[in-house]
């Protein structure tokens, strides 16, 4: 039975060194409905994890604890209603922004590409730098688990498992205080996959420097894409100030089975 009660997390803090890109495997098909296994996320959460890939039929019954999630367009009211009827709850209103070279501001800071020696600094920032994402906002997922997920995500760049480039921001003394992880799905697109600034350095201009350094590297005609959350009003204002335009809104739903 679907429930929002907390999943048992006693096995959740696993060795995350094997976390990789999210490679999904079809494990069930029923009435055009697919559940796709998400082993990377499942390893961190400590329970089998699946992405619901459309469809409105009956879900395969759970044989034990599991976590399901699904993204849907903002205006797909009928599918959203079906998700709620199946025990899913809205976890995030995700916003996608795009920058097409319309505006670059000046920054007083410079950034550089990450080196292998930056891993521990970046991991600490990733672990402490998030609070508005769908995992931190889900009351059934302890913050410690959500923090671990972000840390693992950032560490995978240094293991060659996720991300094509990473920029880091430094203080005048050379301390790494922010990072920006980049995906290049094609030659015309740059995706900001993950970015954060150390809490003690927010508002000092390092986040702006990271974005503007990327903007300066983007070739003419290419676009920069980034996702954030409607609940993160500071992030929304930040990207809009830097010339990003909202292009899509997506609802992300979670379901916890016990």
Which helices and strands, and how do they pair?
Blueprint: E1 2-3, E2 25-30, E3 33-37, H1 39-45, E4 49-52, E5 66-73, H2 77-85, E6 89-99, E7 111-113, H3 119-128, H4 134-137, H5 143-158, E8 165-170, E9 176-186, E10 189-197, H6 206-217, E11 223-229, H7 233-241, E12 245-257
Parallel strand pairs: 4-5, 10-11
Antiparallel strand pairs: 1-12, 2-3, 3-4, 5-12, 6-11, 6-12, 7-8, 8-9, 9-10
Helix pairs in contact: 3-5
Structural class: alpha+beta
Fill in the CATH topology of the largest domain: Aminopeptidase
- Give the count of helical stretches: 7
Give a quick account of the main beta sheet: strands, pairing sense, barrel closure: 12 strands, mixed
Strand proportion, as a percent range, falls in 25-35%
SSE succession: EEEHEEHEEHHHEEEHEHE
| The number of domains | 2
Instruction: Specify the helix fraction band.
Output: 25-40%
Question: What's the name of the CATH homologous superfamily of the largest domain?
Answer: Gcn5-related N-acetyltransferase (GNAT)
Q: CATH class of the largest domain, please?
A: Alpha Beta
